[in-house]
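worker-03 picked up job from queue 'complexes'. Input manifest follows; two sequence lines, order preserved.
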Amino acid sequence: MTAVSPAAGLVESDEPQAESPDFKRNYWVFAVPATVVILAVIVFPWLFTVYMSFHIWEIGGGTTFVWLDNYRQLFADQRFHEALVHTLVFTLLATLIPIVLGTLAALVFHREFRGRGILRTIFVMPMMATPVAIALVWTMMFHPQLGVLNYLLSQVGIPPQAWVYSPSTVIPTLVLVEVWQWTPLVMLIVLGGLAGLPREPYESALIDGANSFQMFVHITFPLLWPFILVALIIRVIDALKVFDTIFVISSGGPGTASETINIFLYLQAFAYYNIGYASAVVVVFFAVIVAISLLMLHVRQKTKWNA
Amino acid sequence: MTTFRISRRRLMQAAAIVPILGAPAIVRRANAQSSFDWKRYAGEKIDVALTKTPRNDYFQSVEHEFTELTGIEVSSEQIPEQQARQKQVIEFASGSPTFDVTNISLAVMKRLAGKGQWLEDLRPMLDDPEQTAPDFDFADISRGGVAFSTQADGRMDTLPCSLDYFLLYYNKELFEQAGVEFPTSMDDIVQVAAKLTKPENNVYGFVSRGLKNANVPVWMNLLFGQDIDALDAGGKLMTDTDEAIWAANLYRTLNKDYAPPGTIGFNWSECQTTFTQGYAAMWLDSTAWARAMEDPAKSRIAGKVGYGVMPAGPKASASAIFAEGIGIARGSKKKGPAWLYLQWYLNKKNQSMLVQTGAGSSARISPFKDPAVIENSPLPRAYFDMLVKSIDIGRPGLPDIIPVTEFRDTFGVALTNMIGGAEAAPELKAATEAFRPILEKSEKA
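worker-03 finished. Artifact:
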C-alpha cells in the first residue's frame, strides 16, 4: 500500500526502503585495514623505538628507565660526532659527483650516435648488480699488493695507492664505488627529462644566435633542474642509508675512519647490544634525515615549472 | 667337636667359583658399555643451528650417519658467524629459540650466554652413564678447552668443539734464501723480520691483522709473552702497564716497519692472501687457516710453509687459543636427542676425520697424535708437531668478560692508530680509560 505525502509530494511506501549511504559514518571501515597496517609496521615500531631510547635495555635482562640519559651520552660521544661527520661527507660526495657525472652522461647519451644503445646498456649495468657482490669484487681490486687497480696504476707510472687501507683515502675510495654504481641511475632520470624537453625554446634561441653553451645554461639546465632535483633527493636518501658496501669493504675502518652512523648504529645494537643507546641513535638519525628531506622537498616546491 | 678346615684345594675351588658367580654382573655391565642405547630417541627430530665453517660443512655432509646411528632426524643450518651471533642473541632473549643445538664462539659469547643462562648445564648428563656413551672419553678433550667452556660458577654449558691456536707461519724458501733461522723469542721476530723485508722485491718480513677489532688477539698473544692477561685475577685492567706497552710497541714495530703497505686495514683474509702469494715471510695468526696454505690451487707456497710454535716472550711461552663451544638450548624440549648429537659431534671418529681432511681443528687431543690421521692429512707432520707443543702453552686469547667486542674495538682502534704512527703508551692509556667504565658497567649488571 502506498500513500502520497502532501508535504513532500513524495510517494510513501510501507515497504522498507534502502537507506541512503552515509559516507561520513560508514566508509571509515574501508580505511581500517590500511590504518592497521600502518600502525603496526610504521607507527608502533617507531613509538617503541622512542620508548626504548629512554631505557637501558639489557638483552636477556631487565630494563631501566633513564629518561634522556642515552641522548645526553650520545651528544657527548666523540665517536658519534665523528660518525656523523663521516656520514655527511660521504653523503655529500656520493650525491654531488654522481649528479654531475650522471647529467653529463645523459647529455652524451641523448645525442644520436652509432652504438648508443649498446653503450647505454653497458653504462647502466653497475646499477643492476647486488651491492654486497660488487663490494666483494672491489675489495679484491683494492688490495694494495695484489689488487688490479694498483697494477693498472703501475702500468702508467703512478705509484700504488692504499685505497681503503688508509684512513686518509678510505672515504673517497668508498665514494668511488658508490659513484660507479649509482651514476647510471642519475643518468636515466636526467635522460628521461631530456626526452621530454620542448623544441620551441631551442628554435627561438637558434634564431637569436645563441651558441650550444648558452642554450645549455639558459634553457636545458633550468628545464632539467626539477629532474636533477628528483635525482638529488633519491641520491641523498640512498647515500645516507648506505650500509652494505661500507660494511663489506672497510667495516668502518681503518680504525673508525669510515665509520658512518649506520655502522655505528649496527655496532651499538648488534655487537655491543646497547639496545637503548642504539635506539637513541636511530631517533636522532631519523630526525637528521627528515630535516634534510624536508629541506630538499622545500627547494623542489620552489623550483616547479609552474611555480 | 669338629673342626672345619679349609683345604688348599677347596680354597682354590672357591677362588675359581667367585668370579664365575660374579660374571653375570660383569657381563651385564660390559653389555651395557658395548650396547649403549643410541636408538632410545629414534623417530625424534632436532634442529641444529651452526656457524658457517668448513668444520660444519663436514658435519652436515655426514649428518646421515647420526640418523643411521640414532634414528633421530636432524634439521641443520649454517649461518655466517656475525649473523649467527645476532640470531642467537635475539632467539635466546625471546626465551624460545627455534633450535635445540647451537655452537658459540667462546671468546665472544661465553659470558653473555652464561649470564642469560641460555644453555643447559651439561655436567649432569656427562656424569650419567645411562646418558653418556662409555667410549665418549671426556678426558681426551683438551683441558684448556674445557676450562675455556666452563663458566665462572662451574656450569659447563658448552663442550669445546674446536680449538685453534696462534702460531707463526713462515715461508721456508724466503728464510733459506736470506739465510735466517726461525726466531727463538718474540724480540727475535723483529730482527728476523728486518732481514727478510725487501720492499724493492715487494716482500715483507712480517704480516698480521691491522684491522680494528681483528688485530687485538695478535697484541694479546704478544702480551702473554710477559705472562699477564688483559685483566688480573681481581678483574683490574692491565692494558696500560709497562708489559702491555712493551707488547704494543712490538706490535707497532712489526706492523709499521716490516709489514706490507695497507696492513692497517688487513683482516686475516688479506694477511692470508699476502702470505700465500709469497709477499710476506712470517704471518702470526691462527691454525684455522692452515689448510689453505697447502692447497696448490690457493697457495703459491704450498709445501714451503713452516709451522712455528709461537716464540717465547720475556717471561712466558704462550699461544692464544680461540675455541668454539657446542651446547643445548635450555628451552629445548629435546635435550636427550640433543645430547646424543653432541656426543656424536665430538666422538673420536668425527674429530679425527675433521683433522685428517683439514676441515678444522679439534678439541680432542688424540687426533693430533694419531699416526693414521697424520699420515692421511693434507697437512705436514710439522703442523702436528707444532700443535702438540701449542696445546701445552695455550691460554684463552681474549679476556673472559661480557663486553668482549667493545674491548676489541676500543683497543683495536688504539693498535690501528699505532700502525699509523701514534705512540703506544698514550694510545693504550686512552683506550684503557675509555674501556674501564664499560667494563665496570657490565660487571655491575
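worker-03 released lock.
Chain B touches chain A at residues 85-86, 89, 92-93, 112, 115-116, 118, 202, 210-213, 260-266, 270, 273-274, 277, 279, 403, 405-406, 409, 412-413, 416-417, 420, 445 (CB under 8 Å).
The CA atoms of residues 280 and 403 of chain B lie 33 Å apart.
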